Amino acid sequence: MWNLVQDLKYAARLNLKSAAFSIVTLSTLSIGIGASTVVFSAVNAVLLKPLPYPEPQRIVIPWRLAPKDANIGYNEIPWGAINFQYLEKANSFESVAAFKSNSFNLTGSGEPTQLDGFRVSSGFFHTLRITPLLGRTFTESEDRPGGGNEVILSYQLWQSRFHGDRGILERGIDLNGVPYSVTGIMPRGFEFPRGEEMPGSFDFPRRAQLWVPLALPPAPKPGDPDDLAVIGRLKPGVSIARVQAEMNLLSAAMERVFPDSKGWFNSRVTGLNEQITGDTRKPLLLILGAVGVLLLIACVNVANLLLTRSLGRRNEFALRAALGAGRASLVRQLLAESMLLSLTGGFAGLMMAEAGIRLVKAFGPSNIPRLQEITLDWRVLIFTFITSLLCGIFFSLAPAAALLPRDLAGSLREGGRGGTANSATARLRNVFLVAQIALAFVLVIASGLLVRTFGRLLAVDPGIHAERVLTFELSLPATKYKDADIVSFYQKALASLGAIPGVEHAGIVETIPMSGSSDGSLIRLPGLPAAPGKEPFANYNIASPDYFPAVGTPLLSGRGFLNSDTASSTPVAVINATMAKKFWPGEDPIGKQVGLADTRTPLMNIVGVAADVKHLSLREETGPEMYVPFTQKPFPSMQIMHVTLRGRMDAILLTGAAREAVHQLDAGMPIANVATLSAIVDESLTGQRFSMFLIGGFGVISLILASIGLYGVISYSVLQRTREIGIRMALGAKRATVSAMVIGHGTRLIGAGIIAGLIVALGVTRLMANLLFGVPSNDLLTFAAVTPILAGVSLIACYIPALHASRVDPVTALRQE
Length: 817
Prior knowledge:
elongated
């Protein structure tokens, strides 16, 4: 231990003496370890940290799946209340619960506010095994039609709106104009379920603020609530495979009861942890791999720097050996020097990681679950410590191999005159450099592919012109607005909103474009019969006459909706271009008829064809979609509609006037989810932008590190060949010849690195195919563009040493020798 302490003291003195070398080395290490720590902390929070529920591995979500040939744009679809009865009888579940999203208008306590919440069955909290911070959960008697009005509040809502007042449990609150009893307050941080954790077909809010009883009827019938999600807790020892087998039997039983819906009861059981991580797993693991490559480049760079420095210490170590130092003590000295550098770099990396985590929380995509839970916990600290140790061991091997040959005396003679290194050491430095260039090439290629993908996404036509469009949500309580009242309110609201100075068009729609959700229905097409269970499917949207000009969706043929399209007129519909091509290829669909699969509903005449609109994302392959006018039938889903206002100015400036116009019609009506359509489109790109900037940043840093490494190797080569260069110039070699010789050496290394990187990149980029859009993983244009960039930057790194070599004074060089 005493010898180790002495070695560490000597290493500290050596590093302080070589201040410039230490600064460069520590900077390289802190960047690599800091970036790795930030990415690992994200992976830890999202993928590794256990969910905050007792035995979370037993919690599953059984999804109902659409038939493979349904072509509805998504796989998971809601369960009906009548289906939930079957799931409750499954033997594999210890408990099972249903839930659905719902919005509520909070009134009577300040400014009216729309709250996002859920209707849940009484077993919901029991299934998660979560108990309230205050109060209690719902009883079975409360979870019945007419069982009363109870609500449980989230901790965040309790604090922000009611200032943590415990008396709220006694006073209650008003929701949708009806008094509700507050039975409980949930613990801090509990917000399940969240919108980013659910598939696109489920229009769930991002944050749950309250929960009320679902109150399903004891004997549900077809037509009862059919937009339910389900969560279950498995019995001890029951595997997902076993419950999946039982779900398959239940699906077959439901098909026998409802033969007309055969194929629509298939299911897939997903673990809650897998559900929450979902689509974020692959991008995060890819980013972790990219930062691992960056860390490896940093380690190779430091190893090359240490190897270069060690060549100047050959005489020192040979002398130590001659004075009796054993091979183990020499290795321990080198290891102590490397460990001191790596652990110091690791500590500096932790400081950088702390700042990096703040940036990720502030600017990271909002659709990554648990992103705000990123922290430097014990797992991250252990990761950083182990990473630092492994880095120290890795880059201590190179100087140890170079300085500790079997014949130390021969090594001393070899390193004498001229100070040249042996060929094995030179080859090792070159191998390190080629590896750096190859790894940097892979990262820069990955960055280029993501940049190309982002450009392709920006070029996608979403079917709208999002500039100067304001959107917000109106929720009409069913207790206050009945069928005729709903239509009347929206007509008055559109008239008032359209009269606001600066508003060009005012429209309403059920599902706004690029919102990440859509709604659809089975349809029937006269003249195109379909077998039971094979009915065609189309997205289904409700809109007002001025909606299309409000969002800038062009009509390709026919007309839009008119104010004269009312309940007493012929039912009409507008379809999108994809629906026209799919069902009436080569024909004019205007005048054709379409209807819902329910034969009790009337057929609608197609009066117009609109451009395709993206709803889920810019990557979405648009499916058939039909629009119906809100004035022809008061649909139940119309209780929540989105207003779209196109202005002559910055859309956000219309917010105050829009709120005032709504309050003049109903003082208790809040406007919610206020946003510009441009911001909604931009938000859909945050995940792609985050990956692009992160991996792009890694690529730039790796390119800089590789250039620094190349500069160091070529500079040291010039230094070692000073005598040779002096002799060449004394014999008549021109400066240009000397420069070409040095650059030629660098060019050979660059070429070898690029070829190796090309081979690796062709394999590695296949792993990121899911992140790409409109760009193949072996995109020739990206490879062709990146290669000269990397070569150019690397040649610049060679040019400076070459310039120094061309200015060597032959007389001075020979005199020094």
